[in-house]
Amino acid sequence: MATFIAVEGIDGAGKRTLVEGLRRQWETGGVRVATVAFPRYGESIHADLTAEALRGGHGDLSQSAYAMALLFALDRRDCARRLRELIDDYDVVIADRYAASNAAYTAARLADNSVREAVAATEWVRALEFDRFGLPVPDHQLFLGVPVALAAQRAVSRAAGDASRDRDRYERDSTLQERVDEAYRGLAAAQWVSPWRILSGAPEPDLAQDLLR
């Protein structure tokens, strides 16, 4: 049975870099590692619909925080069986984004309405993805708490160097990214769903070892 780890953070925080760094460390020591990234663009119809909506497609779909969250959740639901198989077959499974991403972005989009509605959204995501859809619960959730301005700069540079990673509506909205960061920190403080650890983005030599203790 694998240790299941979810890596979270705003766009440009360095999630992919952390996932690959951990994978290399563990595999060097003979640990069997599987990785998965959400949304699964190019693999999931639900993920592709969200990408199209965030680039102006499908009418007013992207204007609904709950509609977008449902599509992101359905992407993970379609992958639930595969996730459980990976957890059964490997020593470590790492997800680049998971359900907490949905909770943070949905709460951030509803923050203008009221704090109560934003908090209710995180509970709705939890109930939908873990209770109703039966998704595996992470053993650890890692939040890359890098400065929002630095993450934005990285996202811009990444898009400039890779046309396939052009920024979407969420990524271009600096105010939203600030609110998402705040929402993530609230989830971490509440230890939402399972244990959280906030990382600064600086190298942590003992991280890989600590996570498997």
From TrEMBL:
Keywords: ATP-binding, Kinase, Nucleotide-binding, Transferase. InterPro entries: P-loop_NTPase, Thymidylate_kin-like_dom. It comes from the Bacteria. One of its GO terms (molecular function) is kinase activity. The keyword ATP-binding applies. Residues 7-188 form the Thymidylate kinase-like domain. It holds the Pfam family Thymidylate_kin. Belongs to the thymidylate kinase family. This is Thymidylate kinase.
